Here is the input.
Amino acid sequence: MTGEAQDRQKTAVHFGAGNIGRGFVGLILHGAGYRLVFADVAAPLIDGLNATPEYTVHEVGEGGRDHVVDGYEAVNSATDEAGLIARIAAADVVTTAVGPNILKFVAPAIARGLAARPADGGRVAVMACENAINATDILEREVRAAAAGEGLDDAAVDARAVFANTAVDRIVPAQEPGGLDVRVEPYFEWAIERGPFGEAVPEIPGVTWVDSLGPYIERKLFTVNTGHAAAAYFGRAAGRERIAEAVADPEVQARVEGVLAETKALLVAKYGFAPHEQQAYIEKILARFANAELPDTVERVGRAPLRKLSRHERFIGPAAELAERGLPTDALLAAVGAALRFDAPGDDEAARLQELLASGEPDAGLVTEITGLAPDHPLHGALVGVVAGVRAARLS
Ligand SMILES: NC(=O)c1ccc[n+]([C@@H]2O[C@H](COP(=O)([O-])OP(=O)(O)OC[C@H]3O[C@@H](n4cnc5c(N)ncnc54)[C@H](O)[C@@H]3O)[C@@H](O)[C@H]2O)c1
Ligand SMILES: O=P(O)(O)OC[C@@H](O)[C@@H](O)[C@H](O)[C@H](O)CO
Here is the structure.
């Protein structure tokens, strides 16, 4: 390696300069010495980042500190594809935090960036940082399909990229419009699977490298996100606006605890987590939800209810497995009922959900359409009862 190459600053292209992008993934990569390139389709955000030399991540709550992020640039991925491809071609890391359903839209630019990369230029680490099980696998499939269209077969992709699944955990609420600073909770965890990197694991202080991500991501999704969504939906039903207010309501708190007791039973049975350790994890998470300095809302946390009610997500995923094992699901079913009632201005999925409930589609068909569960699944009948109850309440 030449001295010039040794001195070259590593670069990271991060898709999605939103809450988690600026407040977590970008912050960690900046702290690891990467020069950041934010890619986003929101023109005001990109212009703001390019016009401002630094922004501050404010950790709020006990032990919180401020961190300055600087030395970045921002690319509008909707209008400057050539600039984006050139940066991906030279990047050491590509990350995303755009939402699981958006991964298919960012994959073509990543594929073109790989095609523009020399075969002997080293492998770029591609990691999706989304709330979904194995989100990088979803992205990888899309990138490989798009790469084939660019003349890159699987071996050519393997020579240029390494794909690793991750689990990201930090609560980052919606921010004041127009600003770049981000308020976040002090806690974070970024777990990345080590295996795909072989001997060449990137140096990213703060990351937890794990041999098997499955237990981490399921424990995170089925505890943090199941509990969070339950707090949002039960909280909304109780007239609360903020998550901290929702969990300060003893009835909401008890319902959330009931939900987490059920997912705990699954996680203990499936992965062998020690019950007292899982309980400690739950207590820590409930304390995080109660952080009154975090302006997090039930609308943000409840957003996109159809995604949250889908087959492998935070409610149906654990409830289906519990039902298959003959274990209780009553609290999760109650949370599904609250989720079905969720509506919020500007949330397309909430509007579509309410349309579906108002439609003439039979309850059983609607359960399958929303949750992906076949009629012969052991949870299906109970969900039909939940949908029927929600529909009856809409008419009364
Ligand atoms: N906020 C949190 O607490 C948190 C924590 C862990 C994980 N996550 C996950 O991180 C992801 C992002 O969440 P967020 O809260 O940061 O959302 P966000 O809405 O704040 O940010 C998403 C960003 O993606 C951008 N975007 C949309 N389409 C794009 C495209 N085609 N190309 C490039 N950029 C695009 C949007 O303009 C926006 O700036 C989600 O998967 C979420 O589940 C969020
Ligand atoms: O981002 P979503 O819509 O999948 O879920 C909403 C919140 O539960 C989520 O963003 C949490 O704040 C986050 O996952 C904490 O790590």
